[in-house]
Amino acid sequence: MPVSASHSPQPQVVGILGGMGPAAGADFVRLFVQACTDRMGALGIPVHDQAYPEHWLAQVPIPDRTAALNDTREGAHQPAEPMLQATGRLAALGARVVAIACNTAHAWHGLLQQRFPQMVVLHGMQEVVAGLAAQQVQGVGLLATRGAYDAGLYQRELARSGIECFVPTAAEQDVLMQGIYDGVKAGNYRLARDRFESVSRALQQRHNVSTLIMGCTEIPLALNDSPRLPGVALVNPTLVLAGALARHAYRDAAQPASCRG
């Protein structure tokens, strides 16, 4: 039964920890707003400007996550402190639930949740894997940063659900990193798409996988819906996490979002 505008439930205030990089943070907001529109439709809430949840994007400069994971020297420039500061600002603005708009930054998820127990800090990998498990996916290829590979962020969650994970070779990981840093982060999307497609085809041909996780928020900015990867389902974790944040905003987080898109 549709809900009248005057009786629409008040959504929770939510936050988005962005800046890693800025284009990925902006893309997350776009997908979150679309997810809210879809959620209102599913709940029978009239869609209008005032029905969207209050949401805050902390788009702050944060040191490189992969570089930090590879450099544990005392005094090395680490992202933990600015991430904590930004999350604190979101908490001060009233955010009850926060999403991290960076896959590799989930290496600090536990720290953020520990420091801010009054908030729910969503775990992107768990959301993605829950969706894959619900679809009974048996194996996936993983496109990610070297930091995410080394930290085992996706591999751990996939293994817990019995999903086999195939990763690129060291040389192919170099190609991915070039696509991320010399491509998307530098504004050269053509180069990025070429590099991402190259590694995707290699994984598909070597392991016969039909599902690829785009496990860096900047990969979908160049690769999403590639016509040169026929027969491959591209999983966009940004889309999945944005959907989870929308469900939490409307206090309806029971079901994992579809992870196709």
Structure description:
The protein is an alpha/beta fold and 261 residues long. The chain has two domains: 5-123 and 239-249, Rossmann fold (3-Layer(aba) Sandwich); 125-236, 3-Layer(aba) Sandwich (Rossmann fold), CATH 3.40.50.1860. The chain has eleven helices and eight strands. It has a four-stranded parallel sheet, with helices on both faces. Strands 6-5-7-8 form a four-stranded parallel sheet, sandwiched between helices. Helix 1 (22-43) crosses helix 11, helix 5 packs across helix 11 and helix 8 packs antiparallel against helix 9. The chain is globular, with a radius of gyration of 18 Å.
Structural topology:
Blueprint: E1 14-17, H1 22-43, E2 55-58, H2 65-70, H3 80-92, E3 97-100, H4 109-115, E4 120-121, H5 124-134, E5 139-144, H6 146-151, H7 153-160, E6 164-166, H8 170-184, H9 189-207, E7 211-215, H10 220-223, E8 233-235, H11 237-249
